[in-house]
Amino acid sequence: MTDSSDTLDISIVVPAYNERETLAALVAGVRASLQPLSGRTWEILFIDDGSHDGSWDEMTRLAAEDGAVRAIRMRRNFGKAMALSVGFRAARGRTIVTMDADLQDDPQEIPRFLDKLDEGYDLVSGWKERRQDPLDKTLPSRLFNAVTSKVSGVRLRDFNCGFKAYRAGVVRNIRLYGELHRYIPVLAHAQGFRIGEIPVQHHPRRFGISKYGLERYVRGLLDLLTVVALTRYSTRPGHLFGGIGVALGLVSAAALTWLTGVWLFTDSAIGHRPLLSFGVMTGVIAVQLVCFGMLAELIVAKGELVDPACLVAETSRNEPSGGN
After folding, report:
1. What does the pLDDT look like over 74-117, one tens digit per residue?
2. Residues 6+ apart with CB under 8 A from 205
């Protein structure tokens, strides 16, 4: 069910890249899943991420036949993170569900995500408990998920699962680029949103081929470092650079103190020793890092990186009007 109002109950955001053969079946599956939810308005929003197999023509055909379907075409292939970001901005639903277009996600699971959100969660992530993928994909994925969970502190078992449900306020205040889409739960958790997880079915791919290889895990781990910096040090970069600088400074001081002792008590020449160059260079780098951290703190202090309004969970009915 859909209507002409600007705000709907549910938006199903589906990024797609060369998935023409699956789109009609996906629309039918989503419709069958959501039609029993009487009284709820919804839409399906396709994001064509630079497809060249006729996916856009199929999307426009489906949109012409079904008023609940909309489609957006990007100029070229920008990647899943940017496609999702475009979808989040265009979605009209108070609840946003994301899923892949390859039919490996089962639309019949959508009501379970909505029920989990109703328990008070702000983001619910799917967990492909029994993945229908070859071993060369499942093993790296398990390792990646274990490392990400340990480093980020967010206890999810499947960060790679694209099947998720969000309250709209969660994703409309998160900027995505690179491979950061898989870290939305980490970014949301850092802002105080409640994160949940449910097991979901995972079907074998029926059409086309996978668009992802092992290299995405390498890029993902590099992006994990970015996420750690964004979530832990975005408002206090001096702690990051200053901490590293202090550690290097201690190493430099230890090396130079040792060489000074050798020079004073053994009367040995130290000017030719590599340890002297190491100690001096490490000390210079330490000072530079501390100064860089102080400069970064000044930049952060000049402008807010996060809108404080995004951090407020709720307010009372009678909001304060000013001073007493």
Report:
1. 999 988 989 999 999 999 999 999 999 999 999 999 999 999 99
2. 102, 103, 104, 132
Q: What is the CA radius of gyration of the chain?
A: 25
Burial pattern 139-158, b for ≥16 Cβ within 10 A else e, equals: ebbeebbeebbeebebebbb
Alpha-carbon torsion (92, 96, 97, 98), positive or negative: positive
- CB atoms inside a 10 Å sphere around CB 8: 19
SS3 of 41-70: the string is CEEEEEEECCCCCCHHHHHHHHHHHCCCEE
| Distance of alpha carbon 30 from the chain centroid | 24
| Position 225, amino acid | L
141-195 pLDDT per residue, tens: 788 888 888 888 888 989 889 999 999 999 977 878 777 888 899 889 888 899 9
Strand partners, 165: 97, 124
Please, are residues 193 and 123 in contact by the beta-carbon 8 Å criterion?
yes
| Under 8 Å between Cβ of 126 and 200 | yes
Under a CB-based contact definition with an 8 Å cutoff, are residues 34 and 44 in contact? no
